[in-house]
Amino acid sequence: MSKRPRVVCIDELANKSFDRRGLCKWCGSDEVVKNGKNKGRQLFKCKECGHQFFNNGKLPRARKSKEAVALALDAYYEGQSLRKVQRLLRKFAKVDVGHDVIWDWIQKYTPLVRDYLSTFRPALSGAWYADETILKFRGRQHYHWDCIDEGTRFVVGNHISEGRSMDEGKAFFRICASNKPRPHTITTDGMPTYHRAINKQFYSRIPHRKVNHISIEHVKENILIERWHGTLKDRTRVMRGLKSPDSQIPNGFVIHYNFLRGHQSLKGKTPAEVAQIDLPFEDGWSDLIDWSGKWRTLCQTENPN
Ligand SMILES: [Zn+2]
Q1: Element housing 116 (H / E)
Q2: What is the pLDDT of residues 86-120, one digit of tens each?
Q3: Of 22, 66, 15, 10, whose CA–CA distance to 47 is shortest?
Q4: pLDDT, tens digit, for every residue of 263-303?
Q5: Domain-embedded: residue 254
Q6: Cβ(237)–Cβ(249) under 8 Å?
Q7: What is the count of structural domains for the chain?
Q8: Ligand 1 centroid – CA 47 distance (Å)
Q9: Are residues 285 and 234 in the same domain?
Q10: Do 146 and 72 share a structural domain?
Q11: In this structure, what CATH number is given to the domain that contains residue 210?
């Protein structure tokens, strides 16, 4: 399958981002010069991306340190409440902020990291299991649809909806299919939506592109899905206070699960590692925030429009 040029460009830039360890906090370049002072503090200017900045350990346009932001996201996606995250920040980062600030960090950095990580293609086993589980937002029931690759435990897609209509099923499989190699088999329970939505998304007359849909009575007894739903419910307990599911939070949990948590069943590796996405992690969310910010700057520098 051919890729559009712009996508290739973005993918290459994603790989570049983690080798860029220069002083520029926007793009990681070391082509940086002193550029006067502001209120007594040294300003720098990057010759590559053109941004001005202070060398103060903070993220671009942020008031608190990168470490504080990363600590907050890590603790939150480990399943701590905003209140608990606030206490952790006070204790370990000596940072005093309100919940609303922590919430803004989560809303700001999760989609950026998600866009960045979506440029990497996981090498999947191609045997997928899809199912949905019920999550409540302010007492209202919603469906969380998710799909896991058997060999790697990689969550290939997730989607939240109020109902289980055909349109929602299609939206879910469209997400699963984006940028991933096609599966050879998808196993689900017998809900008719699944069959029709899979057919709609993956139908092909070409034999080697055919996707086999297996419908079994009790997909919930499948250990793979059961474990993931257990993890998800543990982690998402902190979501009960959310007004609506229309937020980045479930995506953040998937990132945390796929990229940052080693699995016993994978001999301590993360699903991403098993799927051959080898990112040089040293510090979890801090790395992800750093790489994705640099990636975005590089994309903007190379594609100014
Ligand atoms: Zn720069």
Answers
A1: helix 99-117
A2: 999 999 999 999 989 999 999 999 999 999 999 99
A3: 22
A4: 888 899 999 999 999 899 999 999 999 999 999 999 988 87
A5: no
A6: no
A7: 2
A8: 7
A9: no
A10: no
A11: 3.30.420.10
